[in-house]
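Example record for the data management plan.
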Amino acid sequence: MKITKAVIPAAGLGTRVLPATKAMPKEMYPIVDKPAIQYIVEEAVKSGITDILIITNRGKSMIEDHFDRNPELENALEKASKNEILNAIKPISSLANIYFVRQKETKGLGHAIKCARSFVGNEPFAVLYGDDVIVSDEPVCLQLIKAYEKFGLGVVGAKEVPEKDIGKYGSLKLKNIENNYYMCTDMVEKPTPDKVMSLFSILGRCVLPPEIFEILDETLPGAGNEIQLTDAMKVLAQKKGMIAVDFVGKRYDIGNKLGIVKAVVEMALKHPEIGEDFRKYLSSELKF
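Corresponding structural encoding:
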């Protein structure tokens, strides 16, 4: 079955980047001239996704406004003959069929995904974490969709993380199948040192079969007393196996301060409008 639906959980409180996120959702943090979540939506669209559900909560209406039309602004730009800017903002509202639902209580990523049940129906779907902007020539979401089509199993995007950091993420039990494809038969969220299975962790993307909802119904609160999506995927991995794709791409964690700064600096260096001037500025400041 062709995968055309994606879910973007964006209901987190952004506590790691306070006070910036006191009134502004972290997903709306600007990376040069686009908010982080627009990069994520564009990745989904480039992967063949036509319908996207963004899961928000109270205080995040700014995200909905960004993907809506703004006729007053468009008319003002048109009258001022600012066509380049107009052509940059007008297509945002028609990138895909974008829907929104609020997670009434922040009970974890697994609980957020359960909010997508009626949207997904009985179809496989992609999940693009709202904290993760990943830049790659081939969209990472598409890399995972191809793996799902090849193997017919749930798929997680995975990368190796430093040993000192594995306890902050999750650990996967893997066996290489071919190239950058691995069979995953077990996983653990935020493992203690004695529970680490490998240094591979799920980072930012997955493709799931609809049966994940039945598993989530039976999933009890785990790490942080929240319903963890990893705990539900663990059941799926143990039952059928999942495919882990060591994806090709550069990930930026926009849920922490250093990740945001790295994204802004590296995107600015590549930006066609300001890249060269910004490089000169950095060189002068850092005395390269």
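Summary line stored alongside the record: The two ends are 52 Å apart (CA to CA).
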